[in-house]
């Protein structure tokens, strides 16, 4: 199907994107619509590079505009009159490209590519939606299954509550008749009737005990699913979310389910107590309550204990303000952490005290309020939480070095520490000590260690599922490239809304010596240009987060591209085509642009400017540098060589929405750029 026909069949939300695309004067939508078959059949990419081809297509375009104008005249309708006026104006506007037909070809090519991008986005969205529907269907089916099992348990408990009441009435009836016959001295005459009633009572007790055993088996199965699958899956998602992955770490559904299970088990405990009470009033030889009740009580308590122990979690991992991410803490700087009990018992609100401690190689004192009560008021969603917001670590000194005698030969930024939390659950006759711990944290003493500490956090949570493996870095640490690439992409996705594509990851892989297994030594220890790969990558990440987030997110920045590939891309493009890439030689991140330029001998060469650093971008937005950049060379009038963002997008179309001043107004940064940033280097 023709491109324009497909565009017209899009859903309203995507058609609006097309309208926004054509909401400019370079190429009117009416021309695109009425000349669609001819426009789509031409080789605009060739015309953008070839002057003769561009001249030919320019002339044919004007002829087609005349022909379409004549058709409107012949139709004679009112709307045709308006189109006549418009097409006359369109032709007049296009004639300004008579001396530069390649520019018009590039503009038309850009619009066609943008249309294709919209269609590709639609297609990708449909594919993703299909996959998400399949995955969501699987997730939904799994959740529905768990929900049904929890509801089944709740229903069985309700039925059992009714059964207990019926059993009590049945026993009362037997006891009343027994006592009556005993008082009247007719016990022997009624022996047969009483025995029948006792047999029925015995059968009811046995049936109830069997139902309780089956209920506990069902609870045990569901508890195992929660503990061994749901909570393990949540813990892994939380690990990945800590290092930038877009994971769902909500606990609301788990909390609802685990609270329901706990309530069911506490009701079972009350049923067993009731059976003890009934058996104390009426018992007999081979009473099944005496034989089985103790076992069922122990089993119920064991299930409750397992459920409660697993329900105590760290909802928000230790984080200090202004840090690179969670799990890096600095002595003397406040941090926060939040624990949560996924079993909500209103009677225990503000009754359970949670205490914080920290352990391992170096010893620390925790300053601040290190004991808080679990409560339902500090959480936005009503969770049963203890939110520690103002904790601080202070290191205990061990001799001159400040390290304990148990230290291994690990650097400070590779030492992993666990923050522990303890509380006690007490309700009725049940008392359970609850413990949980944070993911391993790296504790530093000055800000210069933060970058390396964050690298350790990334590697641990990328590779290790054992949250207590504090000796992770004592051995050789390696990662498959596919796993490392995904983690690096998450860093950009989390700070600027777009991850890394395959080409960008290829460049990074080559910088890390290939696509096989990567050792952490290559990542954060081996120095190139006097700094490591991670220092370079993290410097770029900070630059993007602070200064380039918008143009990174919209795809205007290629960023990670080698100089060799840069030349390969640009040498096939028309003069003035440029791309934006990151510098490979600046420690704290640098961004530059390179463009194609034809010299006097007809050879295309690629020119670049010295990279712009954090200092430059603090004073001038990068898009304003691109907008106003000029080359100042002897014998030439200053000019801006940047005309088309790779692969061929008119510069103002790509960056215009980010300009400080609107089109036609001079940038307030122009004078500064003119006097300060007029340098060019040849490559």
TrEMBL record:
Subcellular location: Cytoplasm; Nucleus
Gene Ontology CC annotations of this record: cytoplasm; nucleus
Keywords: Activator, Cytoplasm, DNA-binding, Nucleus, Phosphoprotein, SH2 domain, Transcription, Transcription regulation
Residues of the SH2 domain: 552-683
Pfam family, one: STAT_bind
GO biological process, alphabetically ordered: immune response; signal transduction
Major place of residence: cytoplasm
Entry keyword Transcription: yes
PANTHER family: SIGNAL TRANSDUCER AND ACTIVATOR OF TRANSCRIPTION
Protein known as: Signal transducer and activator of transcription
Lineage start: Eukaryota, Metazoa, Chordata, Craniata, Vertebrata
